[in-house]
Amino acid sequence: MSPPAPAMAPPPATKYFWGDCPEPNEYYASLGLRHAEGYFQSPCGRLFTHSFHPISAAHDGDVKGVVFMSHGYGSDTSWMFQTIAINYARWGYAVFCADLLGHGRSEGVHGYLGDMEAVAKAALSFFLSVRKSDTYSALPAFLFGESMGGAATLLVYLRSPADAGWTGIILSAPLFIIPDDMYPSRARLFLYGLLFGLADTWAVLPDKKMVGKSIRDPEKLKVIASNPRLYRGPPRVGTMRELARVTELLRESFGEVTAPFLAVHGTDDGVTAPEGSQMLYERAPSEDKSLILYDGMYHSLIQGESDENRDRVLADMRAWIDERIRRYAAASGKEVAASA
């Protein structure tokens, strides 16, 4: 018995998510940004990375702060997720992103998240290599996670050394509770588990059509679906087993979250239950915590909603992070770069 082959990817509609032209460097420059990409060798595998800086920053460290971002399940950092990083960079922040293990151009079986501890350890290794550098060690630093990347981000926070010095956490529709109709069949997981791990990477679980439940805007859905590196196969056995395990672990760990955080969620999110963000807000002992629920919005708040809704979410995120920068400066007595 062998697993079915994953679905073949359709050709992308355009070379880039913004179209066939301009070329990347010209596109980023038109937005006032400087961009770089490369690879980072983590203890758990090689990661593909991006960085975004405002051109107005005379030096790499001449920014308000640094933000480390993690994308959602099946996605990567080279397509529409970039729009989030681009906005933060245009606000005056240095932004670093990495494709999570098993995603995009990073190492691992495509779409496989069989060990979230390794996924978090790899991302944390990259983030700390930047965070601890002379350029950024004195700056306020934030973790950002979207969807499954929100679960990875909180795990990164929980596994960080005491001296990591995270100024805050931003979570967009984080995966803390899997909705009932998205939850993997316990019977199926048990039966595949009887194969002693041989089926862990098999893409055989029922496809719950997550993309269609995430994106409200049909035109943006077309762009997102044309991502050449999007994972299109059915969920892998080990991925769903591990996500079920780690979401329960995170809920049990909410009492350990003391950093300032902002969680945003759409009330009509059909992929990650908004009750998870509500539960984090209620249980976390952090003295600086914020929760915003957007009535009627779907899962993908920035990439998949109307421009009006997207701009509303981004404005709330910008107001929150800029306020934490002001508080950081007041508490530390340090000068922080002015708003872009």
Structural summary, described in words:
- With 340 residues, this protein is an alpha/beta fold.
- The chain has ten helices and eight strands.
- It has helices at residues 24-30, 82-90, 116-131, 148-158, 186-193, 210-214, 218-225, 237-252, 274-283, 307-332, and strands spanning 33-42, 45-54, 65-70, 93-98, 141-146, 168-172, 261-266, 289-294.
- Helix 4 (148-158) packs across helix 8 (237-252).
- It is globular.
- It starts with 23 loop residues before the first helix and ends in an 8-residue tail after the last helix.
Helix and strand arrangement:
Layout: H1 24-30, E1 33-42, E2 45-54, E3 65-70, H2 82-90, E4 93-98, H3 116-131, E5 141-146, H4 148-158, E6 168-172, H5 186-193, H6 210-214, H7 218-225, H8 237-252, E7 261-266, H9 274-283, E8 289-294, H10 307-332
Parallel strand pairs: 3-4, 3-5, 5-6, 6-7, 7-8
Antiparallel strand pairs: 1-2, 2-4
Strand-pairing-aware structural class: alpha/beta
The overall pLDDT average reads 88
Span from first to last CA? 58 Å
Strand order of the largest sheet: 1-2-4-3-5-6-7-8
Beta-strand content = 15-25%
Number of domains: 1
List the helices and strands in order. HEEEHEHEHEHHHHEHEH
Determine and state the CATH class.
Alpha Beta
What proportion of the residues is helical, as a percent range? 25-40%
Give the oligomer, counting copies of the same chain as homo and different chains as hetero. single chain
At CATH level 3, the topology is Rossmann fold
Shape: globular
Report the biggest beta sheet as strand number plus sense, adding barrel if it closes: 8 strands, mixed
CATH architecture call? 3-Layer(aba) Sandwich
The gyration radius over C-alpha positions equals: 19 Å
